[in-house]
Amino acid sequence: MAPAIMLAADAPRLSSANTGFMLICSALVMLMTPALAFFYGGMVRVKSTLNMLMMSFISLGIVTILWVLYGFSLAFGNGNRLIGYNADWIGLSDIGLTELWDGYTVPVFVFMVFQLMFAILTPALISGALADRVKFSAWALFVALWATIVYLPVAHWVWASDGWAFKLGVIDFAGGTAVHINAGAAALGVILVIGKRVGFKRDPMRPHSLPLVMLGAGLLWFGWFGFNAGSWLGNDDGVGALMFVNTQVATAAAMLAWLGYEKVRHGACTTLGAASGAVAGLVAITPSGGAVSPLGAIAVGAIAGVACAAAVGLKFRFGYDDSLDVVGVHMVGGILGSLLVGFFATGKGQSTATGVFYGDHGFDQLWKQCAGVFAVLAYSLIASAVLAFLLDKTLGMRVTEDEEISGIDQAEHAETAYDFSGAGGGVAGGATAALAAAQTRKVDA
């Protein structure tokens, strides 16, 4: 067949609608990092709250600068199957304001900033596994090195047009491999190196603020619509709308499934379970939502909700201290969501590829998904463990045992999240004064 000839009239033109949509989606994805900070911050003990918040917030600063200097070039520049490079993108020095991204209708700058928000969020996800025990300076350096050595190559594999996983046909709509498996496997690699918290499996380590957890989960759910629907870079063919719908459907199904598992297994439906189940559904639909139907999204969410709820308990069985269940939710959820594409892909969404339950019922797409999943898992796990080992042997990754016991907030940030002293009046001061007055009346009587 003779090659098609693109006429000038057929060439993509800048779309103000798609550009505005993508800028809004970029802002929504940016919101997910503070939302994650709230989600994680509520799950830790009071003495670690600020450190947990800062472990997410610092990624906003570090990764933004790295992305401008060289990150975007290495992740999305035309290079080879393993890594990219575009000299014009080093420092974003030679990009036209209206230059379009790779045949789409949005400027390169818009695609660049959208992907920046993904790059910021991914290392922040890892922090939840390391709560209570990592030096902030060591964590900041880890973020910079991990983003460079692990995230940038994996993003290129999965999303760049010349990346090996992209060329193979691995479906990852918005980050099941590049974001969630990548972060979850990294978390497992690091905690195997740095070890457990003092008192793991002995002392109570319950969330100090479940309302904060629910706030964070709600904001994550909200921001995830930009994360997922925006990854189609527009909605001229309806695929972005399909992803938006499937994001809501799968998240609802996962939350209900997690709560059902809790009720059967433990006799109660908890707020922490509702929040964790919602996040598990969001994780699982991220790679698959553009390829499955809404009924398929219900199946993906329900499977992820039950499987992730069961997986979070594995840390007690196998003895690895995944503080806030990053491995159980993000790694397991990402694996399931990516592999389930091989079963539930309808061939009517982002591509014509079909899963085992559709089309000719073949296993071709499933094998491709397996290749992407296990390559990213192995690379991230090993590279992250080696990186953590080197930092631990040079700078030292952990705070001292005394600092961990007394509270990492005070040791690393010279602050505490809440002031219960009553100094300066307010609610705490009023309560203290009322108590003192009551005791005085009792003595006088």
Question: What order do the helices and strands come in, and which of them pair?
Answer:
Elements: H1 16-43, H2 49-76, H3 108-126, H4 136-159, H5 164-168, H6 176-194, H7 210-229, H8 239-266, H9 271-288, H10 294-311, H11 314-318, H12 326-344, H13 364-394, H14 401-406, H15 408-413, H16 426-444
Helix pairs in contact: 1-2, 1-3, 1-7, 2-3, 2-4, 3-4, 3-6, 4-6, 4-13, 6-12, 6-13, 7-8, 7-9, 8-9, 8-10, 9-10, 9-12, 10-12, 12-13
Keywords: Ammonia transport, Membrane, Transmembrane, Transmembrane helix, Transport
Family: Belongs to the ammonia transporter channel (TC 1.A.11.2) family.
Protein name: Ammonium transporter
What does it look like?
With 445 residues, the chain is mainly alpha-helical. It has a single domain, classed as Ammonium transporter fold (Orthogonal Bundle), CATH 1.10.3430.10. The chain has 16 helices and no strands. The protein has helices at residues 16-43, 49-76, 108-126, 136-159, 164-168, 176-194, 210-229, 239-266, 271-288, 294-311, 314-318, 326-344, 364-394, 401-406, 408-413, 426-444. The N and C termini lie far apart (102 Å). Residues 1-8 and 424-445 have low confidence and may be disordered.
